[in-house]
Amino acid sequence: MKIVDAHVHLGTWPKFDLYFSLGNLKTVMLQYGYSGAGVMPALVGDPMEANQALFKMVRGDSRYYP
To answer: Is the Cβ–Cβ distance between 43 and 7 less than 8 Å?
Structure first.
């Protein structure tokens, strides 16, 4: 059975001093047996730039659904 997290934000939220990286996500997925994740950028800054950076980050890895 596949377990896919449907909503994960990756990036930095300076206002809240929060950060969640792809490395953090990989750790959580391994710990809880997730097969994949729907990923989106942090909701700060220019959305086009944020989405482009996210696509580059997960490109070629079929576990992530941007």
So the answer is: no
For the purposes of burial, counting CB atoms within 10 Å of the CB of 25, is it exposed (0-12), middle (13-18) or buried (19 or more)? Answer: buried
Q: How many other C-beta atoms can be found within 10 angstroms of the C-beta atom of residue 41?
A: 21
pLDDT tens column, 38-47: 999 998 889 9
- Does the CA dihedral 26-22-34-36 come out positive or negative? negative
Q: What is the DSSP letter of 60?
A: T
Instruction: Look at the alpha carbons of 21, 31, 65, 57 in this order and tell me if their dihedral is positive or negative.
Output: positive
pTM above 0.70, yes or no: yes
